[in-house]
Amino acid sequence: MPPFRGQPVTGQGRPAKPQISNARIVVPFEDNRHLTQLLGEFDSHLALIEDRLGIEAHAHGNVIILTGSESQCALARQVLEELYKRISKGEAVGPGDFDGLIRHARHEVPSDGAQAQIATRRRVIKARTPMQSAYMRALQEVDLVFGVGPAGTGKTYIAVAMAAHCLEKGLVERIILSRPAVEAGERLGFLPGDMKEKVDPYLRPLYDALYDVLPPEKVERDLELGVIEIAPLAFMRGRTLGNAFVILDEAQNTTSMQMKMFLTRLGENSKMVVTGDPSQIDLPPGMTSGLEEAVQLLDGVKGIEAVRFTGADVVRRELVARIVSAYDKAEEKKQTRK
């Protein structure tokens, strides 16, 4: 991702190309049909590579010519050749695939260095950042994972995708998705309609993620049968959740007691994921977030892992990453004044 300041930009808002070029790499490709997909509409994928790596990339016949820093051109070649292989295998690639591979190649990736992925019936979700790879591996390896960080980093979406994967593979018997409804207090009584109508608007992001990774008819059937359950946090009290993949979203809005209650629901052969953004706490002033407290208390406990995302892991449009960065800087200034 190009830096937000300190670098000259063109009239279109793209970083200016380096004035000095010290490498020229020609990357050949055999199949022009695959090359067309690799380039993207109007060579949009090449434009993305130019923006991210500060080089020039041009298609000419069946080759792509890379000009600029030797290390950045080599990285671009690595990305192009890897995505060409995927296209040759029949996979569709888009801007997210380019962005993900570039981010992984530019940073030291935890674990074995590979770009992690999750396969569901509808799609294969590939990690877009090194931290997403670490998150996916944590979901595979331990039974309780905290995903903490700003909006747009894929915390909830990846957790739902892993839940769908585990359900389809028979690793769990059901999926349970939960959120604190109406901020942390869960005050639903004043809302019109029955209980489902009251809570559905607050759980809609979980539905959206499910429909994206599973066929709609399967989601509807499993919701009817109770194989997939979506409920507000208050409904978890007194239950033991066994043989399940359990997700608590927006956990920054839980109280200390609510978080303890939820974590102690974990039953045999179950996995639990707790996601939240500490910068968006809606609790009354002076009240401790159950998410922040739990991450601190459980640090170092075997079988539990906390993955911390930052603004650098935002995978929505670049403008969202810039907004997150601006808010982070403002918060840092506040803390410095204190």
Characteristics of this structure?
alpha/beta; three-stranded antiparallel β-sheet; single chain; 338 residues; 16% strand; Ribosomal Protein S8, Chain: A, domain 1; six-stranded parallel β-sheet
Task: Note the topology.
Blueprint: E1 24-28, H1 32-39, H2 44-53, E2 56-60, E3 63-67, H3 70-88, H4 95-106, E4 117-119, E5 124-126, H5 130-141, E6 144-148, H6 155-168, E7 174-179, H7 182-186, H8 195-213, H9 216-225, E8 228-232, E9 244-248, H10 256-263, E10 271-276, H11 290-297, E11 304-308, H12 318-337
Parallel strand pairs: 6-10, 6-11, 7-8, 7-9, 9-10
Antiparallel strand pairs: 1-3, 2-3, 4-5
Account of the 3D structure:
It is globular and about 65 Å long. The strands form 3 sheets. It has a 6-stranded parallel beta sheet with strand order 8-7-9-10-6-11. A 3-stranded antiparallel beta sheet has the order 1-3-2. It has a two-stranded antiparallel sheet with strand order 4-5. The chain is of the alpha/beta class and 338 residues long. 36% of the residues are buried. Helix 3 packs across helix 4. The chain folds into 2 domains: 83 residues, Ribosomal Protein S8, Chain: A, domain 1 (2-Layer Sandwich), CATH 3.30.1370; 221 residues, P-loop containing nucleotide triphosphate hydrolases (Rossmann fold, 3-Layer(aba) Sandwich), CATH 3.40.50.300. The protein starts with 23 loop residues before the first strand and ends with a helix. A hairpin with a 4-residue loop joins strand 4 and strand 5. It has 12 helices and 11 strands. Helices cover 43% and strands 16% of the residues. The N terminus is likely disordered.
